[in-house]
């Protein structure tokens, strides 16, 4: 490994966002389709949802969708193209036995920005009329084409103006990975002109990336720093730190 490129950005919701979370019970007059939330009851964007969307948009743009025997669209699983190298491949026997390097990209779950979560809780600023704790509700109605019968459903959405903290880590093993990085940025560009989550063709899920910051960590940043204090984070533990720990531990004998 040569190093890692860490990308931080503000993911801004421009139109109501719905990433489904399921519900253990259904109440009369309650929301039929809730959004996914963490243990604090705050909505968040799963890293798997964002990574899957970036991959599928890039595959469509470069005509790299796979097919099964039934003709259904599947992710590319060739293992050789830049998409497979960036986003990974499934655990097939062929890939297991190859010498291909691991997936380059890590997409963290994106949680509410602290200042936004506080404004929502206190109903401040643009969230002063927020209907629910951190979300809003919207009625959707489908019409049966033969009987004209209405089928109303109540959706929960993350409101416009919500901001999530985004972190993506791109691992670089060789010069080719540096060249392929442009395709990850390309995926973000596709996303801003598409949608995230469900019901995108009905206006949901427009997002924008703002305040993008890039941080580079070379392999030396992980291995060459000197730490002697017993109290350390995982980023501070290296051979020298371990040696100092051993010396302090054995000196007590």
Walk me through what this model shows.
With 253 residues, this protein is an alpha+beta fold. The chain has one domain. The protein is 27% helix and 23% strand. Strands 1, 4, 5, 8 and 9 form a 5-stranded antiparallel sheet that branches. The longest helix has 18 residues, at 175-192. The chain starts with a strand and ends with a helix. The model is unreliable at 24-30 and 225-230 (pLDDT under 50).
Quote the average pLDDT.
81
Order of helices and strands: EHEEHHEEHEEEHEHH
Question: Into how many domains do the coordinates divide?
Answer: 1
Oligomer: single chain
Biggest sheet character = 5 strands, antiparallel
Q: Which stretches of 5+ consecutive residues score pLDDT under 50?
A: 24-30, 225-230
Described by the principal axes of the CA atoms, the overall outline is globular
Note the total helix count: 7
How big a fraction of the residues is strand? 15-25%
Radius of gyration over all CA atoms, rounded: 23 Å
Distance N to C terminus:
39 Å
Pfam families: RAMPs
GO biological process, one term: defense response to virus
Protein name: CRISPR system Cms endoribonuclease Csm3
Keywords: Antiviral defense, Endonuclease, Hydrolase, Nuclease, RNA-binding
Furnish the topology, listing elements before pairings.
Elements: E1 3-13, H1 47-61, E2 66-67, E3 73-74, H2 82-87, H3 93-96, E4 105-107, E5 111-112, H4 114-122, E6 136-143, E7 150-157, E8 163-172, H5 175-192, E9 207-218, H6 219-223, H7 239-250
Antiparallel strand pairs: 1-8, 1-9, 2-3, 4-8, 5-8, 6-7
Helix pairs in contact: 1-5
């Amino acid at each position: 490994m040569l190093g890692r490129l860490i990308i931080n950005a503000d993911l801004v919701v421009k139109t109501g966002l719905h990433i489904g979370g399921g519900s253990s019970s259904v109440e009369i007059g309650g929301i039929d389709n809730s959004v996914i939330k963490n243990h604090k009851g705050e909505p968040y964007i799963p890293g798997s949802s964002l990574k899957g969307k970036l991959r599928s948009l890039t595959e469509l743009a470069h005509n790299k969708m796979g097919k099964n025997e039934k003709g259904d669209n599947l992710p590319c699983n060739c293992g050789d193209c830049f998409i497979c190298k960036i986003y990974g491949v499934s655990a097939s026997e062929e890939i297991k036995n190859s010498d291909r390097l691991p997936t380059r990209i890590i997409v963290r779950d994106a949680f509410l920005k602290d200042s936004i979560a506080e404004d929502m809780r206190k109903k401040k600023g643009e969230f002063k009329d927020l209907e629910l704790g951190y979300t809003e509700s919207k009625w959707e109605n489908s019409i049966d084409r033969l009987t004209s019968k209405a089928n109303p459903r109540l959706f929960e959405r993350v409101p416009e103006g919500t901001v999530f903290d985004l972190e993506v880590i791109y691992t670089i093993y060789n010069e080719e990975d540096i060249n392929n990085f442009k395709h990850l940025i390309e995926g973000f560009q596709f996303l801003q002109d598409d949608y995230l989550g469900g019901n995108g063709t009905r206006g949901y899920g427009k997002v924008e990336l703002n305040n993008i910051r890039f941080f580079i960590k070379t392999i030396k940043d992980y291995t060459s720093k000197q730490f002697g204090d017993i109290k350390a984070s995982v980023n501070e533990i290296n051979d020298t730190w371990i040696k100092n720990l051993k010396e302090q531990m054995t000196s007590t004998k």
